[in-house]
Amino acid sequence: MAHHIEHFNIKELFTTDKYRIPVYQRNYAWGKAEISQLIQDIIDYIPSGNNYYIGTLVVHKQSDESNFLYDTIDGQQRLTTLSILLSVLKNEDKKVDWFSTPILSFESRELSQQAIKFAFVGFFDGTKLYHNTIKEAYDHIKNELHTKIKEANITLDDFVSYLSDKVILLRVEVPTDTDLNHYFEIMNNRGEQLEKHEVVKSLLLDALYDEDDFYNDDIQEFFHIIWDGCANMERYIQFGFEPQLRKVLFSKDWSELNITSKENLIAEFTKYLVQKNKDKSIEFEPLSIEDILDNNRGFNFTERHAENSDRFTSPINFQNFLLHILRIQLQDENIALDDKRLIVFFKNHLRVCNSADKKEFAKEFMYNLVKGKWLLDSYIIKRQYTATKEGWSLKKLTTKDFSKGYYVNTFENPKYLENETMTMLLSMLHVSNPTLMYKYWLNACLNFLFGQSSITFDNYHAYVLKFTKDLIVYRFLNEDYSNRLEYNTLIFDGDSLPEHYPVINTDNLFLQYGHIENNLVFNFIDYILWYNDDEGKYGNFEFTFRSSVEHYYPQNPIGGKKLDDSEALHSFGNLCLISHQKNSKLNHHLPSAKKNYYAKLDHGGQLAYDSIKQFVMMQEYDASEWSVEDIYDHNEKMVEMLNDYIQN
Per the structure, how many domains does the chain have? Predict the structure, then answer.
């Protein structure tokens, strides 16, 4: 019996049948990146007016009643996210009134079932246990949806109409007698399609092809070597090349890039090939199997290719890295950091080039790959994991004996905490924008670094700090929404902005709950508090992916009365950024209970806290008497501190 395939728009899908997530399926696991990408994909297709096929839902029918129940075999992450998205639209925006009955349930998974019920009604009861990832998704959609709609210059009604009628999901019903274990085995072992970056590689190799060029094969071979040497984002670029080529590309101690242009790169590679061919021509004494296995024969490997046991995680993947390099090379603000359009961006550029221009473009891109990966490794933070700890890392790779590398701080003046300061700034920007397609801060940093003949702490720090201030003042806290500056303006035309920043008012709309559009607002306050700390009180603080905005005095307090002053309740003075896990646990507790909870946490002998701003609220005010007056006082002090730091 063949699979039964139907197509449904979202309105039809969520008003027809019911779906269950079987117990053998994994928990809901989509994070901000996947959710943001889903919303962005839908928005991208709205101008076309055509149907957008969002994917496939593979199901197994469990009932013959009028309203069927289907077990979801494949597509549960997408189905759950769509259910949460519709719940947000129903509860927060009073849209999709047709979504009147929940269609999704979880088999033998009470916490997930509780969470999806709370999402449907729009209230997560902090006194009960539920699967927190679903709440995180709900909160993220609530904030992200409106930001993306404004950026796309469409209305919420446009989005809802297109989502309801034009977003299509294919439902594939497997036969009722299907052996599901065998089906899963087939699904998990099916062949993978060619990845987008592999398609781009083939496009560039094709652009390099020149049947009249005697050295064409050498150039294509070099492109392969460069590409593969840069593709592993978890490994420093120096380890991507064999020792002799490493000596050509990098300085004697590996810490600097020797190559200065595509012409220089190709010339040095040509010399390397000549030497390599000479080495191949040396006649060696042939060895028998007995010789090789003879314990008396020794083999000397003076240089090793392997990296040491430290492990680093890059803030971006390779496909996203390719977009950063393309955007910088072409200085084209229309190239979005959206890897689903990776192939299109390369094809669009190559389409308008003649053969000679294509070849030069590919050569330039080859050089920029090497330079960009070296800059990324040396001047952009990574997450470093060792046997005993993990943390943000800003390090260069170097060597003393030309065979084994080790890591040193990128900036080496400990007196002025240069490396610590840059690490804090960059990690602040990274955790504030966790989604790959919004890593504009990283694009700005790489764009700056590409243009410097000499990179110092002073010029790099000044640039990153200015870019951060520009983001805060001219974008996230700019109350004149029609004149908010785009990321592209801040990256490519930042020098044209006024020298003096406007003052941020204490009643700024975008400092109030429900209107704060980016966590950088909170994180920058934490950075300033850390920077101004002369007593070392916050020495153990590091930026993490906290994304839950907490009311210090709760909206619905347990054991206390609600604040009469709603303006104070939602004021920046009553808000701080904490983890979703802690927010769901402490959401309705009074400030005194929250302070007691943190005081009991073991944090290496130091007081625990999620943010420095939160710590200030707990330590500088009486938690048992946290009042409206305290809220306004704290709000005024934080905004005043923000203005002082930005102006100076």
Answer: 3
Residues 456, 338 within the same domain: no
Q: Which of 354, 378, 413 is the last residue of a domain?
A: 413
pLDDT digits (tens, 9 = 90+) for 482-538: 889 999 999 999 889 988 999 999 999 999 998 998 999 999 999 999 999 988 888
User: Does an H or E element contain 551, and which?
Assistant: strand 548-551
Residue whose entry in the numeric block shows the structure tokens 């072409």: 330
Q: What is the pTM of this model?
A: 0.77
Contact 355, 401 (CB under 8 A): no
Cα 543 to its chain centre, rounded Å, is: 14
**Domain span at 257:** 196-279+305-413
Say if residue 317's pLDDT is above 80. yes
Minimum mean pLDDT among 148-162, 173-187, 535-549, 570-584: which range?
Answer: 173-187
CA distance 20 to 116: 12
**Which DSSP category does 564 fall into?**
S
Burial 551-572 (b: 16+ CB within 10 A, else e): bbbbeebeeeeebeeeebbbbb
b/e per residue, 471-490, with b = 16+ CB within 10 A? bbbbbbbbeeeeebbebbbb
C-alpha closest to that of 158 among 146, 170, 168, 140: 146
Q: Quick one: 607 and 492 in the same domain?
A: yes
**CB count in 10 Å sphere of residue 395:** 20
- The sign one gets for the Cα dihedral 96, 99, 100, 104 is negative
Q: Residue 37 in contact with residue 148, Cβ under 8 Å?
A: no
Q: Which residues are 59's β-sheet partners?
A: 72, 173
